[in-house]
Amino acid sequence: MRKIILAFDRELVIAERNSAGWNVSSRFKGANPITLTCDPNNEERIYCGTFDRGLWRSVDGGSSWEAIGTLPSFGDVFPIDMPAIRSVTALAVSPLTGEDGNGIVFVGTEPSALFVSRNGGDSFDLLTDYNQIPSRPSWFFPQRTYTHHVKLIEMDSTNPKTIYTTIEVGGLIKSLDEGKTWSEYKEGNDPHDIHILKSHKHVPNRLYAVLGDSFLKEPGHGYAESYDGGKTWSYLTEGLNHHYAYHMAVNPNDPDNVVIATAQNPHAAHIYEGGQCESIIYRKKANGIWEEVTSGLPESKGTLIPVLKSSPEGQFYLFSNKGVYYSSDKGTSWSSIEIPWEPRFVGQHPYDMLIID
Q1: Helices in the chain by DSSP H: which ranges?
Q2: Is there a contact between 33 and 15 (Cβ–Cβ < 8 Å)?
Q3: Is omega for the bond preceding 111 within 30 degrees of 0, making it cis?
Q4: What is the Cα–Cα distance from 57 to 239, expressed in whole angstroms?
Q5: N or C: which end of the chain has fewer CB within 10 A?
Q6: pLDDT per residue rounded down to tens, the chain (357 residues)
Q7: What angle do CA 321, 326, 330 make, to 5 degrees?
Q8: CA distance 280 to 294
């Protein structure tokens, strides 16, 4: 890796590797950057979504940024009649290209809506506001019950024309035609509070989901899988002693190698409170039973719920308020990436991470 970009709740941190180690700089200080993605056809082309200052684009790997979609500059405020791409909550770029040769950009917002750009972010169109979805009137976000948002956008790994979006809290909404039409499956056992959803290039129609449903239903609803594209689900929680699951990574070369980040409850996961937070990492063993992982990781007490990612080579990466770590043995043990860690990072919530090779 030559660059790691970290979205904290109050700044974007860019760590660049050189012959002497790591050079660390910050962007968007005081803002709330919560989602990152890069164009799969050009990793120097990066998009950053903030909850309070709209959407931003970099074409030089994060060295410089420009506002796109709405806000003209970092210090400006939104006019009342500003278009809706202001509270960005999810991003994805399709490997399918638009009219300018760049990947098609999808942006999810609060309130729940999905926008698309087919010219690399120069302009956006509303793809859906989900008003046609029958369950929409029941959607809510626990911290702001009067609203809800798109939590995640996932391009299917075997067919990027299939798009999955998850609503917090409202379940899975799916399109089979690049967003022209959308549908939901409500079979009675479907997860409602999907934090991360993944597909896999080696197993068509297999979906993985980490959930907050144990706090909407009952314990035992922290992790689920579907083998039919989200129509039906199985909850797989044997060995899982912490029922609030928030982040996940799946080995792209091994569909049964899954690592998840959990906590006892949402408060322990997200509120630092002088170091009283706590999060726990689990990996799924070959027999399907979860085991807690501690080797090489910082103490779980005082660790806010971390971000998990995987690389094309099958390595796992973890980003917490205590540092960045990697695993080369399927998540069994971890090592620290020795990025200089500022004291102010420890009290900040990690939201997203990009690894650039």
Answers
A1: 266-270
A2: no
A3: yes
A4: 42
A5: C
A6: 789 999 999 999 999 999 889 999 999 999 999 999 999 999 999 999 999 889 999 999 999 999 997 644 445 554 555 556 889 999 999 999 998 999 999 999 999 999 999 999 998 888 999 999 999 999 999 999 999 999 999 999 999 999 999 999 999 999 999 999 999 988 778 999 999 999 999 999 999 999 999 998 888 999 999 999 999 999 999 999 999 999 999 999 999 999 999 999 999 999 999 999 999 999 999 899 999 999 999 999 999 999 999 999 999 999 999 999 999 999 999 999 999 999 999 999 999 999 998
A7: 125
A8: 8
Strands 113-117 and 103-109: antiparallel
Counts of helices then strands in the chain (DSSP H, E): 1, 28
Tokens (6 digits) for 206: 């297999």
Using CA atoms, how far apart are residues 186 and 183, in angstroms rounded to an integer?
10
CB 333 within 8 A of CB 296: yes
| 220 CB burial (10 A radius; 0-12, 13-18, 19+) | middle
Please choose, from the candidates 278, 147, 159, 146, the residue with its C-alpha nearest in 3D space to the C-alpha of residue 207.
Answer: 159
pTM: 0.94
Burial 297-314 (b: 16+ CB within 10 A, else e): bbebebbbbbbbbbbeee
Give the Cα separation of 265 and 140 in Å (integer). 18
Q: How many residues in total does the chain contain?
A: 357
Beta bridge partners of 122: none
The C-alpha atoms of residue 25 and residue 208 are separated, in whole angstroms, by: 34
CA 149 centroid distance within chain: 13
Whole-number Å distance between alpha carbons of 103 and 93? 6
